[in-house]
Design brief:
202 residues; alpha+beta; 60s Ribosomal Protein L30, Chain: A; 4-stranded mixed beta sheet; 4 strands; elongated; RNA binding; Ribosomal_eL8/eL30/eS12/Gad45; RNA-binding; Ribosomal_eL8/Nhp2; H/ACA ribonucleoprotein complex subunit 2
Length: 202
C-alpha cells in the first residue's frame, strides 16, 4: 500500500486549531479567576464598607473669602446629621430660590451655605438677607456634602432647616410618628451657630 502525501495546509490548520483551543482554555480559565475575585470582593462584610466613608476635602484656596462663620469638623458632622433627619421629615428648603422665598415669607430656621460656590455672587446676598430677618447662618466647606446630606444627588448651594414648616413626612402604617426626632440636635446646632455668628449688617 502506498503512503499518501500529507498536505502542508492541513497540517498548518491542525496546529492552528490546537493553538486556538489552548488559547480559548486559557481565556476561560482567566475569566473564571477574575469572576471569582469579583465575587470575593462583593461579599465583603458590610461593617468594613461602613467604616470606609470618604470625606470630601476642599483646599482653602477654593473657599470663598466671604465664608464666615465657617463650621468646623465637629459642628459640620452635627449639621449634616440634622440636615439628613430634617429632609426625611420634609422640613427643609433647598436652593437659593426656595431659601429666599422662605426668608421673605418670614419663616424661621437655620441657614447653611456652601463656601465653595463659584461665582460667589449666587449666594452673596443671603447672609445680609438672613441677618435682617433674624435667621442665623453658617458656611460649610463643600456643596457636594451639603447636597448629599439634603438627600439630593446634585450639589446644593444652600439649605434652610425650617422645623416649623407645615409639610409633614409621608406616614407609613404601623410606625410611630418621629416628628420631633431631630429637634434636640437642631436646637444644639442652632445655639452653636448663634454663638459663632459674625454679623455683617450693624
Amino acid at each position: 500500500m502506498a503512503k499518501t502525501k500529507k498536505d502542508p495546509k492541513d497540517a498548518a490548520e491542525a496546529t492552528a486549531d490546537i493553538e486556538m483551543v489552548d488559547i480559548e482554555e486559557k481565556v476561560i480559565f482567566q475569566l473564571s479567576n477574575a469572576q471569582s475575585e469579583l465575587e470575593r470582593a462583593n461579599f465583603q462584610s458590610p461593617k468594613k464598607s461602613k467604616k470606609e466613608t470618604t470625606e470630601i476635602i476642599i483646599p482653602i484656596e477654593d473657599l470663598s473669602p466671604l465664608a464666615k462663620p465657617l463650621a468646623q469638623k465637629k459642628l459640620l458632622k452635627k449639621l449634616n446629621k440634622t440636615i439628613k433627619k430634617a429632609s426625611k421629615a420634609r422640613q427643609i428648603k433647598r436652593g437659593v430660590k426656595e431659601v429666599v422665598k422662605g426668608i421673605r415669607k418670614g419663616e424661621k430656621g437655620l441657614l447653611i451655605l456652601a463656601a465653595d460656590i463659584s461665582p460667589i455672587d449666587i449666594i452673596s446676598h443671603l447672609p445680609v438677607l438672613s441677618e435682617e430677618a433674624g435667621v442665623p447662618y453658617v458656611f460649610v466647606s463643600s456643596k457636594e456634602e451639603l447636597g448629599y446630606a439634603s438627600s439630593t444627588k446634585r450639589p446644593t448651594s444652600c439649605v434652610m432647616i425650617c422645623p416649623d414648616q407645615k409639610k409633614k413626612a409621608k406616614r407609613k402604617e404601623g410606625k410611630d410618628d418621629k416628628e420631633d426626632d431631630y429637634k434636640d440636635l437642631y436646637e444644639e446646632c442652632y445655639r452653636e451657630v448663634e454663638k459663632m455668628d459674625t454679623q455683617i449688617v450693624f
